[in-house]
Design a protein that fits this description.
Blueprint (H helix, E strand, L loop, with lengths): L1 E3 L12 E6 L5 H13 L2 E6 L19 H10 L4 E3 L3 H4 L18 H4 L3 H16 L3 E5 L3 H13 L5 E5 L19 H7 L1 H7 L3 H7 L4 E10 L2 E10 L2 E10 L4
Parallel strand pairs: 1-4, 2-3, 2-5, 3-4, 5-6
Antiparallel strand pairs: 7-8, 8-9
This protein binds adenosine monophosphate (AMP).
Adenosine monophosphate binds next to helix 1 and strand 5.
């Protein structure tokens, strides 16, 4: 596996290229995306970039878990060909000024609690798509609204690549794997289990009841391009967790 730090170091692509955008701190959720990409492409590129543009001023950018050595090892074992791990100024050099606004979809749910989050996500994804020129890009159902935003971006700007959505990978206790789970103390982790338990009821009222003791940002039924999901964001201590279950409809 090659590690590229600059855009110029990326290899010219031959055959089908699959891109997996990530922020690192790999877990089995990321590995499922790598496996899906490995299965249907000649070249698999994973990006590892903790994108400052998608973090709010009071969010966890500074303490976001980073372990590039471990990530590189796991990516290599998963069959990734190229790990693109640029410094922030390679992506946002001085004078950077252009941003992608995905409209109403970016302002609901997560967007209400994280203003400018999806603007940062859409912008970095468009940049990565232009830099890597993939035929397919892989995202997790865990971040259902992000997946919908990326699909909207691809459709609206005629980007001409396939977006593949991989089902959510969960731990034995039901909690969706997330790099942010590392922040949880054992007590917080026990409390966090209420989130997947509540969503698993697939019933808004029962879920509300089960989340009564947690600090809930939102718990809503949402429709993303015809796929209905029950989605929630909760805060457990200083950690913010999101999750969703599909109620109806295929991943569009
Ligand atoms: P992140 O590094 O957290 O930005 O995640 C990179 C990609 O992995 C995103 O497309 C996420 O939706 C996806 N992902 C994160 N957690 C999971 C999970 N538990 N199951 C499946 N995909 C996931």
């Amino acid at each position: 596996m090659r590690i590229a730090r600059t855009i110029a170091e990326l290899p010219a692509s031959e055959g089908r290229v699959g891109l997996v955008p990530t922020m690192g701190a790999f877990h089995a959720g990321h590995l499922a995306l790598f496996a899906a990409a490995r299965e249907e492409n000649n070249l698999v590129v994973a990006s590892l970039f903790v994108n400052p543009a998608q973090f709010g001023p009071s969010e966890d950018l500074a303490r976001y878990p980073r372990d590039e050595k471990r990530d590189a090892q796991l990516a290599e074992e998963a069959g990734v060909d190229v790990l693109f791990a640029p410094p922030a100024d390679e992506m946002y050099p001085e004078g950077y000024a252009t941003w992608v606004d995905v409209g109403e979809l970016g302002r609901r749910l997560e967007g209400e609690f994280r203003p400018d989050h999806f603007r940062g996500v859409a912008t970095v994804c468009l940049k990565l798509f232009n830099i890597v020129r993939p035929d397919r890009a892989y995202f997790g159902q865990k971040d259902a609204q992000q997946a919908a935003v990326v699909k909207q971006l691809v459709r609206d700007l005629n980007l001409g690549l396939d977006i593949r959505i991989v089902p959510t990978v969960r731990d034995e206790d039901g909690l969706a794997l997330s790099s942010r789970n590392a922040y949880l103390s054992p007590e917080e982790r026990a409390a966090a289990r209420a989130l997947p338990k509540a969503l698993a009821t697939r019933d808004l009222q029962q879920a509300e009841h089960l989340l009564a003791d947690l600090d809930v940002d939102y718990l809503e039924e949402a429709n993303f391009n015809g796929q209905r999901v029950l989605a929630a964001a909760v805060r457990v201590g200083r950690t913010r967790l999101i999750d969703n279950v599909v109620l109806e409809g295929e991943t569009p």
